[in-house]
Amino acid sequence: MKTPICTGFESAAGLTRRRFLDRFGMGLGGIALSDLLQSGDARADGVDAVQAIAPKARRVIYLFQSGAPSQMDLFDHKPVLNEKHGTELPDEIRGGQRLTAMSGNQSSLPLAGSPFKFRQHGESGAWLSDLLPHTAKVADDLCFIQSMYTEAINHGPAVTFLQTGSQFPGRPSMGAWLNYGLGTDNENLPAFVVLVTKNKGGQPLISRLWGSGFLASKHQGVRFRSGKDPVLYLSNPDGIDSGTRRRMLDRLGELHQLQLKRTADRAVEERISQYELAFKMQKSIPDVIDMSDEPESVLKEYGDDVRNPGTYAANCLLARRLAERGVRFIQLYHQGWDQHGNLPAGIKTQCRETDQASAALINDLKRRDLLKDTLVVWGGEFGRTNYCQGKLTKTNFGRDHHPRCFSMWMAGGGVKPGITYGQTDAYSYNIAENPVHVHDLQATILHLLGIDHERLTFKHQGRWYRLTDVHGRVVDDIVA
User: Fold this and answer.
1) Average pLDDT over residues 450-473
2) Where are the alpha helices (DSSP H) in 263-370?
3) What residues does 64 pair with on adjacent strands?
4) To which H or E segment does residue 28 belong?
C-alpha cells in the first residue's frame, strides 16, 4: 500500500509519492527527469552526439567462440614448443604470473607442442593450423591479431569483460551500447540479434551477456531460437488472428497515451514501441528465417549443417540474412572450446563445426558487396596455456586458461585485410610486440562504426559510464 504524502495543499488521502513528484515538477521529480533527459536516452536520438568520424562499417557480426580457443593450435605457430615438448615451463618465461587453481597445484608444468601442422597461406603468408582449411582460403581477407590480452582468468568474468567492458555483471553489452548510440537501421527487425548454437555443452551463457544493463530495455539483444517460435512470446495465442492482435494493440496504445498525459514516463513510450516492433516482427521473422530462397550453391558453401536450424553453420547464414536486412549488431555464440583435457579430439570437433561456415560467411558477404561495410569478429575470451594441464601423454593433453595472450581475427568493415598484427614470445606465453587490450579492441570496433569511444557515455547513479570504462585506444595500424 502506497504511503500518502500531505503537502498542506490537498488532503493526504489522494496524493501518492508519484503524484506528488509528477505535480510539483520543479521539485525532485523535475530534477530527476531533467537529469535523465540530459544524460541518458535523450542523447541516443542524435547520432551526431557520438559519431565523430566517418564510419567504415554499418554493422557487426561477432562470432564469439565461448570457452577460449587454443591460440597455439590454431593461429599462433610456435615451433619452439614442439622442440621443447615435455620439458618444464621456464621460470623466466612464466615470470611469477598467477595460475588458476586447476593447474596451480601441479608439481610440474610440462610444455605441450601442437600436434597439428601449420602452413602459410595466401599472399599474406598467414600461419594457420591444418585444422582450419577453409579459413586458410580466406586468409588474405582477414586481419589476425596475435597479441590480445585480458586481466580476467576465469570464464564468467572474461566473457562478461569482452561483451560489456567490465568483469562485473550489470553493464550494457556492446550491442546494447551500439543500439543506444546509433539506433536502428531497419523498421521490422531488432537492431541487436543474438544467435546461440543449439545443443552445445560448455560454459553457460547468461542472458545478461546481451542485456541492456542500466540502459533502456529496448536496447537489449533479442535472442532467436531454432524451432517454430524463433522469438519467445511473439506468436499469437490460439484463437487470436492478426486483425485481433492489431485492434488489441491499438486499444492498448490509446491507454498508454492516456497514461503519458498523466505521467511523462519514457518506459511507457518504450513499451508502445516494443509492442509495435513485435507486431511487425510477426511478418518479418518468418521471412528472414526461411532459407528456401537460398541457392543450392550457397547452402553447399556453408556445409551440411546449414540445413539444421540452430547449428553454427545455419546461424552464420542467418547472420548474413539479418545483416542484409539492416540488423546492426548480430552476436553469435558457439560453446565448447574449454579444453582442459582431451584437447586434440575436442578442438578437431570445434573446428569441424565452425571452420567452413566462418569462411563461407566471409565469401558470402564479399560476393554480395556487404563485407566492405560489415565488420566480422572471431574470437574467445582469453587464450590457453602452452603447458599441459594434468598428465601429458604421447597422444593426449589439455590446456588451462591463459589471459596473457590470445588470438582473434577481424574482417571487412574498414579493417586492413591480409595482415597479422602483434606477436607473442617464442612460447606463446607473453606478448612481445603490439599488445591489444580488450578495451583497445572495443575502442577499435566503435571507431570503425564512426564512434568516438570516449563520447559514447551514459550517466548512471552519479557516474558517467562507457563501454571502454576508463581506458582504451584505437588500434590505428589495423584500420584501412
Assistant:
1) 95
2) 266-289, 296-302, 312-323, 343-367
3) 333, 379
4) helix 28-39
Condensed to tens digits (0 to 9), the pLDDT of residues 288-299 reads 889 999 999 999
Residue type, 221: G
At 415, which amino acid appears? V
Residue type for 343, please?
A: L
Please report the sign of the dihedral spanned by the C-alpha atoms of residue 162, residue 165, residue 168, residue 171.
negative
**pTM assigned to the model:** 0.86
**What is the pLDDT, as a whole number, of residue 187?**
84
Are 327 and 189 contacting, i.e. CB atoms less than 8 angstroms apart?
A: yes
Segment holding 466, helix H or strand E = strand 463-466
Q: Is 26 exposed, middle or buried (0-12, 13-18, 19+ CB in 10 A)?
A: exposed
Tell me: the pLDDT tens digits for 382-400?
A: 999 999 999 999 899 999 9
| CA 479 to chain centroid | 20
Region 445-460: mean pLDDT is 96
Q: What cell numbers appear for 221 in the block?
A: 539483444
- pLDDT of 475 > 90? The answer is yes
DSSP class of 110: B
Q: Identify whether the C-beta of residue 281 lies closer than 8 Å to the C-beta of residue 287.
A: no
AA letter at 64: F
pLDDT of residue 28: 38
Residue 126 β-bridge partners: 121
CA-based Rg of the chain, rounded to a whole angstrom? Answer: 25
Contact in structure between 359 and 138 (CB atoms under 8 Å): yes
Do 103 and 400 meet the contact criterion of CB atoms below 8 Å apart? yes
Domains of the chain and any CATH numbers: 1-39 (no CATH), 52-231+284-478 (3.40.720)
Distance CA 475, CA 472 (A): 9
